[in-house]
Each structure stands twice: as C-alpha cells, then as structure tokens.
Amino acid sequence: VAAPVAPSPVPPHPGLAKRVKKSKQAPPVTKDLGRWKPADDLLLINAVLQTNDLTSVHLGVKFSCRFNLREIQERWYALLYDPVISKLACQAMRQLHPEAIAAIQSKVLFSKAEEQLLTKVGSSSQPTLDTFQELLHKHPDVFYPARTAKALQLHWQLMKQYYLLDDQT
Q1: Looking at the domain assignment, is residue 80 inside a domain?
Q2: Gyration radius (Cα) of the chain, Å
Q3: DSSP letter (8 states) at residue 36
Q4: Is the Cβ–Cβ distance between 55 and 115 less than 8 Å?
Q5: Which residue intervals define the domain Microspherule protein N-terminal in the entry (predicted)?
Q6: What's the CA gap between 33 and 132, in Å, rounded?
Q7: What is the pLDDT of residues 131-168, one digit of tens each?
Q8: Is 126 part of any domain?
Q9: Which residue, of 106, 125, 153, is where some domain finishes?
C-alpha cells in the first residue's frame, strides 16, 4: 500500500491574502462606537443609577440620537462588562467640559423616592424656592446631588399640572 501523496501547495493569490487580513483586522467590539457619544454614556449611567430601570430610561431620556430599548440595554451591559468599551467610554467622559457635565446632570430623570417627597408639597400651597431648598437640605440622601431648588420647583409644577400630588384627585 502506497502512502497518499499530499498535493503540492499552491501559492495564494496576493490580492486574496490582503482581503482576508483586512477583514480580520476590524474588531466587532467597536461596531457601534460612533453612535454613542460621551454625553450619551454619562446620561445613560446617571439615569440608570437614578431609576434602576432601563425601560424608564428608554422612555424618558432624550439622547443625541434615537436608540431603541435593545440598543440601550446592549450599551449598558457593554459599559458594565466589556473592558474595552468601558475603558474607552470612561476616557471620553473624563474629557467632557464641566459645563457639559452640568447640563447632562440637569437632564437626569427623577427617581420614585424624589417624586414621593415632591408629592408631599401641597397643591393648594404656593411654595417658593426656599420651600424646595429646605426639602433638598432635609433629604440630601434622596435627591440627586446636582438637583437645584429651581429644578425641584419645575418638576413639582409639572406634577401638579398632571394631578400627581398627594392632595389631588
């Protein structure tokens, strides 16, 4: 019995080798990197920390472009568990201007606990900024650190408009 003869190696076509190398160089990790801006990442992180609910974030937060719920979930998990994306996002967020960070923090959703405290302010009362400032001082552990008395007043007015206060029917 004769041993099988191995076919002689055919030199690969030079253009084919280049195409194969190029397709291997693009890592799938950075697929959606361009759509998510550092401001979006910071807003996503702060909103999720406030609400603990990705669906609420999807419904209530306005990002720089329209993301569906699945994209928001994927980005959240990537920020948590993908070391490459997480590192790149953190570096980009650190480079944001302090004024941009303040603007982003002012857009953070209100948590249920914050709204619960706001509902206690009566609808028939005419609360001033001092009323909301006092609320901030009494409950620093409940309110988001970037909240201002003016922000609380505006949100309270919205809640009053939609009959969401405790003394409204």
Answers
A1: yes
A2: 26
A3: S
A4: no
A5: 35-169
A6: 40
A7: 999 999 999 999 999 999 999 999 999 999 999 999 99
A8: yes
A9: 106
